[in-house]
Amino acid sequence: MEPSFILQNTSQPVMSSLSLLIGEGATSFCYKVNRDGKWLLMKQLKQEFTTDPLYLEALKKEFEVGQHLDHPNIVRYVNGTDTEIFMQYVDGLPLNQFIKMKPNYFKDKANRKRFVDELTSAIDYLHLHQVLHLDLKPTNILITRQGNHVKLIDFGFAYQDCFIYQPAGTEGYTAPEQINGSADLSPASDIYAIGRVLKELNIGSRKVINKCMADDPKRRYQSVEELRAALQSASGRWRYWVVACGVGVVLVGALSFDRQDGAKLSEYNRYEEKMRYFFAPVDSLLSDSLKVGDEFAAAFKEVFDECYRAAKEDELCGKYIETKDNDFANYTQDVFGFFVDRAATEHDGSSVDVSGK
Question: What average pLDDT score do residues 158-184 get?
Fold first, then answer.
C-alpha cells in the first residue's frame, strides 16, 4: 500500500455471506456487496474510526462530493450511512496492477491516446464542477476488464470551496502546495499528479511532463484543456517530422530554400538549411524524450539513422554529408557533435552513435 500522510493501525473486518473483502485502506475496508441482486462496492470505516468526528466528517464529505458526479470515467456513488458509503462496483484493476499484467499495453499509440483522453476528460469534468481530486495516483485509476476504460475512484481527499481543506495526499503524487497546507489549491494541483502518472507510463514529451510537475503551480498548465493541447501538439509534431524524413522528403526542392526576394541561397547555406530540416526529429527527441541510458541510445539511433538516410537521398545533402576536410564536413561534424553533447548532458550521460550507418 502506498504511504499516506494519514496512517493508522488496521483492525480485522467483519464479513457476511453477501459481502467479499476486496481491499483495505488506512481507515476503511472495501467490500463487494450484493444489494437486491446487484453488486456494489461498500467502503466501511474501520471500527476504531467510527467514533472519531474527523473521519466521520471525511466520509460524509466524500459521499457529498461523489453523489453529484455523473461521468462515464468516474465511479458513481449510490448512497451512504454515517460509517459506510456505497458506490458502483467496477470490474477492473488499479493502473499499477494492470501495467504488471500487461507491460506492453501502453506501447500502442491507440491505447495511450484512449487512456489520456479518458483520464483528462474525467478530471476536466471535476474541475468544471469545482471539484479537485487531490489524490490522483495509479491505485485510484481503475482500468476496466471490458474495454480497458478508465474509472477514477476515491474522493476521500477531494476538495470544494465549501469544505475546509485538511492537508493530505499520497507521497510521490501530491503537489507541494498540498503538503504545506497552502491556500493556493487549483486545477494545477491535480495536473501535477497527472504529470507523475504520465511520467511513469512514459506518455508525453519531457517538456510537457516537466511543466506538469513544476514546483510552482503558476508554472504548470493551468487547465486540463491546456495540457491536452500540449500533448496533442507534441504528437502532431512527431507525425509531421516522420513524414518529412520519409515519404515527404521528395517534396523538398530548391524553391523551399529561395530567399523571399527571389535570390538563391549559396550552396553552403542551402546545405545548412536542409540539414536542419532533415535532422529536426533528432533535435525533438533530445528535447522531449524522458528516456536515458541504453534505452535513450536505442531510440536515438533509430531516429538518427532514419534522418541520415533521408539526408543522403537528397541531391544536395547526399553530395556533402560524407565528405571530409571542407566547410561542409566541418558543419556536419559540428551538428553531430552538438547532438552527442546534448545526449550526455540532458539524458544522464547517455552515449549515442552518430555514424549514420
Answer: 73
